[in-house]
Each structure stands twice: as C-alpha cells, then as structure tokens.
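Hi V.,

You were right to ask for the full record rather than a summary. Here it is.
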Amino acid sequence: MKIVFGIDQTEDRSNSVFDGDVFIEKTVDEGQKKLLEEIRKKTAADERAQATPRWVMYLRTAMSAVFFVCAFVLARRAMDTSFTEMIKDRLWLFILGVVSALSYVGISVYEIKRRNRTVRDTDDGELKRMMQDAESRSYAMLGVPDSSPEADVLAAVYRLEGDRIIQGNRLYSFINMVFRIFRDDRYMYLANYENLYRFPLKDMSGIVRFEGKVTVPNWTKDVSFEEPPFDQYKIGSIRDGSIYYESNYALRIKKGTELYILNFPPYELPLFEEMSGEKYGK
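Predicted structure:
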C-alpha cells in the first residue's frame, strides 16, 4: 500500500517525492515554477522577519519565571507576617519581582510593536497580489475550473517497518495541504499551484476510516472550526495553534497492482464522497 500524498523515506531519508506523483496529469511550465519558487522564498523571508528573535523569547520566559518565584516566596512570607514587615524583610526580592514583571510587560510590548512594524514594512499588498496572480495563472495552465472548491488533504513523511507504516513526526500526524478539487465523467482531479493530479473513478474502491487522534499544524478554512458546519466534527486546538481531531478518512485507489490511499480530514468527507462517487460504509 502507498500513500498518495506520502513521502516514503524507508530507504532514502532525503526523499521528497510523493508516492502519488504517478497520478500527475499536467504540470505548469518552468517559468511559472520559478515564479512560484520566488514567491515561496519571499514569503519565508517575511515570516522570518516577523518572527521574534530567540534571545527575546528566552529573556521573556526568564523574566516570567523570576516574577513567579518572587511572588511565591513573598506570598509565603506574607502568611507569617504583615505586608509592611514582609517588604522590609524581603525588600530586595520585592524589587526583583517588580523589575521582572515590568521587564516582561516591556518585552511583550516590544514584540507586538516589532511584529506590527515588520508587517507594515513587508506586507504592502505586493506579495498578496503576486500570490493571487500566480494562483490564477497556475490554475489556468492546469485547466482548473473557476468554480472548483478547495479541499484539505493530508500529507505525511513515513517509513515502513515490516507491514507497519510509521508516519508523521513527534509534533504532527500529517501536514494539511489545500487543493482545488473537481471531476468529470471519468476522473476526479486535485490541483495545487504546480500540478494537476488525475484519478480514474473506475479505479476507486471505497472510503475507509482510520481511528486515532490526528494532529496537523494549522486550520486552513476561513470559517472557524467552532462554527457550522465544522463544529460537528469535534475539532480542537492546542496552545501552539495546531489542530486535532479523532480520526481521518481515506479514499482507496488502485493503479495497476498497487493500492494507494488518499487521506483527508473528517470534515471533507461529504466533498470527497461527492467528487469520487464513493460512499463511506458502502
């Protein structure tokens, strides 16, 4: 079994090719690929510019820790004496606590102002326009209908251990990727900015469900997962912004003698049932 958007690193840890690239029907030209790469580099540079320097994060964490230690010690001392006596007895600790608290607030304000200033300096609309133009050009090259909806699919690096598939990393089970999806009488299609994947409807053999917690880096939809129609899928978030849900689905696709599975989140089940013609549980 292979994973359509899986990268098999069992033998080659540097492999970066999806198993499902055998389904690629069309790709954009070299000029468009270069443009997309330039946009990716610029986006990465802007993200790095907006990121808080590591030393600032360490200092903020240290100030927070110092404040809580001081507050804990002072609170314990205040239980045995008056506030005035506590201040006299632990004046240096009180001053240290105040300084650390003010430092924490100051660093937090600095982070916010720095991030806002960087956004103003870098995000002048040019990058957004470049991305929109590149997206439109890519989809036109690939023949993607304007009316085709977006769908999240799940990608993962994996390795084989006997008959077991070990996938994901210590942080995420999958990476969620956004594709445009559409179909005709013979095929279901998925398209990103570079490639058009074509899957014969006749080679599809049902939809299966995989139980177990799935964690992905982020939420991609414009509507919150706490609002309809997504609130029915018991989606939760972690403090770092990652998203989790209790299971995922997969569309089974044969190619020659090989079975491929195309993983997707539970909230995309109705869309994949419509586009594939397959029904879960039937």
